[in-house]
Amino acid sequence: MAQALLTLDFLDKAPATPEATPSANVRVSAATRTGRQRKLYIESYGCQMNFSDSEIVSSILFDEGFDTTDDLASADLVLLNTCSIREKAEQTVRMRLSQINSYKKRNPGLLVGVLGCMAERLKSKFLEEEKIVDLVVGPDAYRDLPQLISQVDGGQKGVNVLLSREETYADITPVRLNSNGVSAFISIMRGCDNMCSFCVVPFTRGRERSRDAHSIVQEARALVAQGYKEVTLLGQNVDSYKWAAADGSEHVNFAQLLERVALVSPELRVRFATSHPKDITDEVLHTMARYDNICKFIHLPAQSGNSRILALMNRTYDRPWYEERVHAIRRILGADCAISTDMIAGFCSETEAEHQDTLRLMDFVHYDMAYMFFYSERPGTLAARKLADDIPLEVKKRRLQEIIDLQQLHSARRNERAVGRVHQVLVENFSKRSKEHLSGRNSQNQVVVFPKQNFKKGDYVNVLVHSSTASTLLGEAV
Ligand code: SAH
Ligand code: SF4
Ligand code: F3S
């Protein structure tokens, strides 16, 4: 199956380990050729939740007679699954729409739709602002796509941006779009009930709801049967996963769900994201410790190292609380558990000393990886309504650069520490540089490259690491 993956560098975002940067990617649907009549080209921006939703959308449209294509020029329907998290993310989509406009001039029958968070944020205003758009569909309305498309086929525009308190698409089997056949994502919940003051997600994704635990375990089983070796459980705040059977006979929290998925097969690696520092429990950490196949990697976004800024951000924890959670991880899982973070530089009213607190928190944790941004005000959020976006752009950028520089140092040290040790690697692909080498990740999510010998995709291989670069560990199978 042809596979296309286009990576763009986002200027406002600097991942310290480029291989592991889901949200810096734009993903293009791979081609499925099953002789269906119409061709869907879908491009996904933003986070893993969007990438995962595009697989649900493809599944819904497959049943409506659409194959996916990785070639925009041969598409009958183009969908952009969009992100609103920062201004830059929205600008990228607008630029893409103007490029697609030139295709549409040559091919007037082409239908163009926007899905996802920007569709939800702008609603029917999108149709006024971008004349080329025929369809605007929010994250909870994808089941309505067939109906909306026939409306557009009939010469009208189609809009559905209703948010739902129940929709989890639990019964839809996703079409795996950019899969390496080894790792897959499973959405376990949707929406977010936190109200971080900088964040647009609660507005674009609606209320938090958890998916039926049985359908999650079922999906993991089906993936194992197809030969998959790794699943990542996805949610904006996985630690608040909470599902109850309709008759009240069963209650499942995140630690219990994690255990159920880990028990599907000892050969299946289990990852999850994102953990919220206010909600991650010792019970989750003990569950991680009990199962070798639950990866020792926790994405625990701090956002800032200063308690006053954390309060303004409405993160509902302070610096001592965050440090205590890091201690708990070290106590229960040892130094081997990797921790990553998201940091925002230059939030409203942040002083130089408060920025230093963020750098000192980084020195304290020694993050293995980080996604780093400067603050971008989003319309409608608490911060946009109540706080002045008063840090000059040059200052935001300079502070961000200091955060990036420090993280690069920490990432390099962490890679050096991995040298001389044996790591269990799950092989995902050939190395980008050579077909004679394979590439995979260890439990801590570090990328490891080694000579292929007779190993193949999907194998677990013990690799003795002999050297490291800023982003990759190099070694030999032992
Ligand atoms: N649910 C996750 C994060 C989702 S958004 C969590 O709570 O951690 C991913 C990251 O984007 C956030 O962690 C934050 O660091 C960043 N982000 C969100 N809104 C932003 C904004 N307005 N400006 C800059 N960065 C932002
Ligand atoms: Fe946004 Fe906060 Fe929800 Fe994360 S937890 S999605 S940052 S509101
Ligand atoms: Fe994800 Fe962007 Fe929406 S980060 S939830 S696609 S705003």
TrEMBL record:
<feature type="binding site">
    <location>
        <position position="199"/>
    </location>
    <ligand>
        <name>[4Fe-4S] cluster 2</name>
    </ligand>
</feature>
<keyword id="KW-0479">Metal-binding</keyword>
<dbReference type="GO" id="GO:0005829">
    <property type="term" value="C:cytosol"/>
</dbReference>
<feature type="domain" description="MTTase N-terminal">
    <location>
        <begin position="38"/>
        <end position="154"/>
    </location>
</feature>
<comment type="subunit">
    <text>Monomer.</text>
</comment>
<dbReference type="InterPro" id="IPR006463">
    <property type="entry name" value="MiaB_methiolase"/>
</dbReference>
<keyword id="KW-0004">4Fe-4S</keyword>
<dbReference type="InterPro" id="IPR007197">
    <property type="entry name" value="rSAM"/>
</dbReference>
<dbReference type="InterPro" id="IPR006638">
    <property type="entry name" value="Elp3/MiaA/NifB-like_rSAM"/>
</dbReference>
<feature type="binding site">
    <location>
        <position position="83"/>
    </location>
    <ligand>
        <name>[4Fe-4S] cluster 1</name>
    </ligand>
</feature>
<keyword id="KW-0949">S-adenosyl-L-methionine</keyword>
<dbReference type="GO" id="GO:0035597">
    <property type="term" value="F:tRNA-2-methylthio-N(6)-dimethylallyladenosine(37) synthase activity"/>
</dbReference>
<feature type="domain" description="TRAM">
    <location>
        <begin position="416"/>
        <end position="478"/>
    </location>
</feature>
<dbReference type="InterPro" id="IPR038135">
    <property type="entry name" value="Methylthiotransferase_N_sf"/>
</dbReference>
<feature type="binding site">
    <location>
        <position position="192"/>
    </location>
    <ligand>
        <name>[4Fe-4S] cluster 2</name>
    </ligand>
</feature>
<comment type="function">
    <text>Catalyzes the methylthiolation of N6-(dimethylallyl)adenosine (i(6)A), leading to the formation of 2-methylthio-N6-(dimethylallyl)adenosine (ms(2)i(6)A) at position 37 in tRNAs that read codons beginning with uridine.</text>
</comment>
<feature type="binding site">
    <location>
        <position position="47"/>
    </location>
    <ligand>
        <name>[4Fe-4S] cluster 1</name>
    </ligand>
</feature>
<protein>
    <recommendedName>
        <fullName>tRNA-2-methylthio-N(6)-dimethylallyladenosine synthase</fullName>
        <ecNumber>2.8.4.3</ecNumber>
    </recommendedName>
</protein>
<keyword id="KW-0411">Iron-sulfur</keyword>
<keyword id="KW-0819">tRNA processing</keyword>
<feature type="binding site">
    <location>
        <position position="196"/>
    </location>
    <ligand>
        <name>[4Fe-4S] cluster 2</name>
    </ligand>
</feature>
<dbReference type="InterPro" id="IPR023404">
    <property type="entry name" value="rSAM_horseshoe"/>
</dbReference>
<dbReference type="Pfam" id="PF04055">
    <property type="entry name" value="Radical_SAM"/>
</dbReference>
<comment type="similarity">
    <text>Belongs to the methylthiotransferase family. MiaB subfamily.</text>
</comment>
<keyword id="KW-0408">Iron</keyword>
<dbReference type="InterPro" id="IPR058240">
    <property type="entry name" value="rSAM_sf"/>
</dbReference>
<dbReference type="Pfam" id="PF00919">
    <property type="entry name" value="UPF0004"/>
</dbReference>
<dbReference type="InterPro" id="IPR013848">
    <property type="entry name" value="Methylthiotransferase_N"/>
</dbReference>
<dbReference type="InterPro" id="IPR002792">
    <property type="entry name" value="TRAM_dom"/>
</dbReference>
<dbReference type="GO" id="GO:0051539">
    <property type="term" value="F:4 iron, 4 sulfur cluster binding"/>
</dbReference>
<feature type="binding site">
    <location>
        <position position="117"/>
    </location>
    <ligand>
        <name>[4Fe-4S] cluster 1</name>
    </ligand>
</feature>
<feature type="domain" description="Radical SAM core">
    <location>
        <begin position="178"/>
        <end position="413"/>
    </location>
</feature>
<dbReference type="InterPro" id="IPR020612">
    <property type="entry name" value="Methylthiotransferase_CS"/>
</dbReference>
<dbReference type="InterPro" id="IPR005839">
    <property type="entry name" value="Methylthiotransferase"/>
</dbReference>
<dbReference type="Pfam" id="PF01938">
    <property type="entry name" value="TRAM"/>
</dbReference>
<dbReference type="GO" id="GO:0046872">
    <property type="term" value="F:metal ion binding"/>
</dbReference>
<keyword id="KW-0808">Transferase</keyword>
<keyword id="KW-0963">Cytoplasm</keyword>
